[in-house]
Specification:
The structure is a single chain. This protein is 42% helix and 11% strand. It is of the alpha/beta class and 367 residues long. It has 2 domains: 22-294, TIM Barrel, CATH 3.20.20; 299-359, no CATH class. Helix 5 (115-125) packs parallel to helix 6, helix 8 runs parallel beside helix 10 (229-242) and helix 13 packs across helix 14 (333-346). The two termini are 26 Å apart. This is Citrate lyase subunit beta.
Length: 367
């Protein structure tokens, strides 16, 4: 799988100084954590998800979350489980007979409802679990977190050597996290669990919709989640605990629940400014707009290369190659490492190119 594979070879050459690299669910954990990108949620009851995933019917799709939780009604749970198992088996069959290539599959995740359901799904999927990249853990708390990861650890200990690691993606969205009086204690306790199972944590996700519901709030389509004060403050604390460089976690931005793009793009840019990479999306039209914003500009790339190259030299600061800022080698070192890692997944744009060129091509505007 590869980002922006909808571009022609000529368009890619015109847009990219360094094109994106390919990846798959056997790739290194750091690459995979940044590759989740715009993760499209699909109800597991969707009758065509196997065809959509296997045959590239959704242009630009790179990661998909098959949802057994909020997108499925309580009376549909069994049907959703059967749909999930049946369609994953169908994808496996297409691969076995050579109709579908593993290299062209998006990263596939499943969001489960409970630890018990996780055990059930893993048991029913059998060897086809190897098609997955990870499991999304909703409403991740101190009480259930260790149980989720223990199941994952047991699976990884027992799987065949050729099967990829199955990762966990906890969603922080419970009342004990958003309520101020319990937040610090809860986040620190969750951080202990995350640290104990660090090798199995792909990224940490934020459930802003559940947070908002506890206050009867909902952002307007022309506003971002950062305009909702209680959510903004909680997101800041999540970043403070889990976003420190020594923790080396990737934190993804919360879902944007409107179909329009303007507010979404504003929010993605604010996500990036706060160190969040990746976003839960609920509509295919969001895939390209979100993904394009993670590409690295030529200016960012040249700054990052200069900072890493000169970090061990005699100089402490140098004017940037673009001549518009000072690069301080030690303070900007961690930022530069993140930029270069992201550049491997999303590529580096040519000097005169912008994000919008990635939406349909270098000389055409997105409509």
């Amino acid at each position: 799988m590869r980002y922006f594979n909808y571009l022609t070879a000529d368009e890619e050459k015109a847009l990219f100084y360094l094109p994106p690299n390919s990846f798959h669910n056997h790739s290194h954990k750091d690459i995979l954590a940044h590759s989740v990108g715009a993760a499209l949620y699909m109800p597991a009851t969707r009758r065509t998800f196997a065809e959509d995933i296997a045959f590239g019917k959704i242009e630009g799709l790179v990661s998909v979350v098959l949802d057994l939780e909020d997108a499925v009604g309580d009376n549909e749970v069994h049907a959703a489980e059967e749909s999930l198992i049946g369609q994953m088996n169908q994808i496996a069959y297409w691969m076995e007979v050579g109709i579908v290539s593993a290299e062209n599959l998006p990263l596939i995740f499943i969001r489960v409802r409970s630890v018990n359901q996780l055990n059930y799904v893993l048991e029913r999927l059998e060897e086809n679990v190897a098609l997955l990249t990870g499991i999304v853990f909703p409403k991740f708390t101190v009480e259930n977190g260790e149980d989720y990861f223990q199941v994952l650890e047991n699976y990884n200990d027992e799987k065949s050597a050729s099967a990829p690691t199955l990762y966990g993606l906890p969603i922080l969205e419970s009342a004990s996290i958003i309520y101020k009086e319990s937040r610090t204690f809860t986040l620190l306790a969750i951080n202990e669990i995350i640290t104990n199972f660090k090798e199995l944590v792909l990224n940490i996700r934020i459930g802003a919709t559940d947070f908002s519901s506890l206050f009867g709030l909902r952002r307007s389509p022309d506003r971002t989640i950062y305009d909702i004060a209680p959510i903004r403050d909680c997101v800041a604390d999540i970043i403070n605990i889990f976003g420190r460089m020594e923790a080396s976690n990737v934190i993804s931005g919360p879902v944007y629940e409107y179909f329009g793009v303007k507010g979404l793009l504003d929010e993605v840019m604010l996500d990036k400014e706060n160190g969040l990479i990746g976003k839960t999306i609920i509509h295919p039209t969001h895939i390209k707009p979100v993904q394009t914003r993670y590409a690295i500009t030529h200016e960012e790339y040249t700054d990052a290369v200069s900072i890493l190259k000169n970090n061990h030299g005699d100089l402490g600061v140098m004017k940037s190659a673009y001549g518009n800022k000072m690069n301080e080698f030690k303070p900007h070192y961690n930022w530069a490492k993140r930029i270069l890692l992201r550049s491997q997944v999303y590529g580096v744009l040519h000097e005169q190119q912008t994000f919008d060129g990635l939406l349909t091509g270098p000389n055409r505007a997105y409509v």
